[in-house]
Write a structure and sequence with these properties.
With 499 residues, the protein is an alpha/beta fold. The chain is built from 15 helices and eleven strands. The strands form two sheets. The chain has a seven-stranded mixed beta sheet, sandwiched between helices. Strands 8-9-11-10 form a four-stranded antiparallel beta sheet, with helices on one face. 43% of the residues are buried.
């Protein structure tokens, strides 16, 4: 009689339940006491390495219960907590608890969402998630797309589709290096760094980018854009695409998407919108006008792990004509047996993007969209924006703060001491020092932005745990740290001048 296989990596039902129930209890306690912890423990790499220890790869097995218990302690007590109500840095949201449960469920079944036959229901759930995201931001549900890891990959996926659609047709065989004319890309100076990575990695080179200046409102200057396109055409370049931004990372400004769309149509260019951060705000009727023109985009990038409160990783690429994705990414090696069944057309996501093997990212987004609903997200996003406005207003009223900008849920501000002559170089140095102190102090975590040559503190609220109380307390923390560091820097400056 054949023996049953015993594997050191398996866990029997009782053991799995015992370890799993304890983990769920610990996670629940962590989530519901997160506001009582420091935002960050501010520990050095060497300190963390010492905590982990320097032992070699284990020779023998250890009990799962012991491993999970220790790892829980490591993560809960030695992490930066972007779920903390006073985490307003960069654009990483507090993660919805249902998303954590979704990731556990997805990992348990472990579907490979590269081909329908490997992930039947997961593929259909991802298709439905893409459709719902289209409806969420107000574009046609006929757009096609897929879930990716984040903003860079969402934009890269669209960039390559644009390159295939608008380049000479022989590019797949002959490559870009044999193109007659240099392909050119147009974007504002506030565009996220993904565009530089894209032109380097995908063969166009940094000289292909035309950095278009912004106007007084920090939007891409559309007149200058058209002038630059005309000049390039005159000089035998091949304009490829225009990248509009729906919520730039520094100040939250949304480009004039309508005007960008009109220019793209006029010159037959691909119109891409980087809405990784801001696109979800289109669900709020009060702000829908900011996104007029989004329906004309050939492609859109958005990140559910930003303003839809999904756990990392969850980005999304949407393309108006999904055939452009297939034209770009589809291949049919002889070892793939992913043909259609029963006369129905099955969608295989490996034909839509860079990955063949793909995890089930869509599940956490799909569940959150149902748990919260359209009206719930409208309320949450509105509240985030109102809290951002509250921070701006409180800074504006404070005699030691300067409110610099407020768009969507991003506010920028500076600490300006009463007794200082507002020399910009000194204020930039002071506010950079304040940010460094805030990011290591554990009370609040902000990031920075350079706005009109001013070094600013930047707060981006995509956090369903942040409250009015937190905003009021953050004002106090900034001014307290600012006062302390101003005294310190002033003393150093005076000593230097005396010498």
């Amino acid at each position: 009689m054949a023996k049953t296989r015993k594997s050191p990596i398996d866990m029997n039902r009782e053991k799995f339940q015992k370890v799993g129930y304890q983990l769920i209890d610990d996670v629940s306690n962590f989530i519901h006491s997160i506001d009582q912890k420091p935002v960050t423990p501010n520990e050095s790499p060497s300190t963390l390495q010492a905590i982990l220890g320097h032992s070699s790869l284990p020779e023998n097995r250890k009990p799962a219960k012991e491993l999970i218990s220790r790892t829980t302690d490591l993560l809960f007590n030695h992490s930066l907590l972007n779920g903390h109500p006073k985490f307003l840095g960069y654009i990483t949201s507090s993660a919805a608890p249902i998303g954590a449960l979704a990731d556990l469920l997805a990992a348990s079944v472990n579907p490979n969402v590269g081909a329908h036959i490997l992930s039947p229901i997961a593929t259909e759930i991802e298709k439905q998630t893409v459709k719902w995201l289209c409806e969420f931001i107000g574009v046609s549900s006929n757009y096609g797309g897929l879930l990716v890891s984040g903003g860079n990959m969402a934009n890269f996926t669209a960039f390559l589709a644009a390159r295939t659609a608008k380049s000479p047709k022989n590019i797949k065989e002959d490559g870009i290096q044999n193109a007659t004319n240099q392909l050119t890309v147009y974007c504002s100076k506030t565009t996220h760094t993904w565009i530089e990575k894209a032109v380097i990695l995908f063969g166009l080179g940094t000289k292909s980018i035309r950095w278009i200046a912004t106007d007084a409102s920090n939007k891409m200057d559309t007149q200058l854009l058209e002038t630059t396109i005309k000049e390039d055409l005159k000089n035998n370049y091949t304009p490829l695409m225009v990248v509009g931004t729906a919520g730039d990372v520094s100040t939250g400004v949304v480009d004039n998407l309508n005007e960008l769309s009109a220019i793209c149509k006029k010159y037959d260019l691909w119109f891409h919108i980087d809405g990784a951060y801001g696109a979800p705000a289109a669900i709020v009727p009060k702000y829908k006008h900011l996104f007029e023109g989004i329906k004309e985009a050939d492609s859109i990038a958005l990140d559910p792990h930003k303003w839809l409160y999904s756990p990392l990783e969850a980005g999304c690429t949407l393309v108006k004509n999904p055939q452009h994705l297939i034209d770009t990414y589809s291949s049919h090696p002889e070892y793939y047996n992913f043909s259609n069944t029963d006369g129905e057309m099955a969608q295989n996501f490996y034909e839509y993007g860079l990955q063949n093997s793909r995890g089930f990212r869509a599940l956490k987004v799909w569940l959150s969209l149902q748990q919260v609903g359209r009206s719930g997200y409208e309320a949450l996003i509105t509240e985030d924006i109102e809290l951002s406005k509250m921070l701006f207003d409180l800074a504006q009223k404070h005699n030691e703060l300067e409110a610099v900008s407020q768009n969507l849920s991003i506010t920028t501000l500076r600490y300006v001491p009463i007794d200082h002559d507002t020399d910009n170089n000194y204020l930039n140095t002071l506010n950079e020092s304040i940010l460094n102190e805030l990011q290591t102090g554990g009370e609040v975590f902000l990031s920075n932005a350079i706005v009109k040559e001013q070094y600013c503190l930047r707060a981006c609220i995509v956090n369903f745990r942040t409250s009015e109380k937190d905003i009021e307390e953050i004002i106090g923390i900034i001014t307290s740290v600012g006062t302390k560091l101003h005294k310190k820097l002033s003393a150093v400056t005076k000593d230097t001048e005396t010498e």
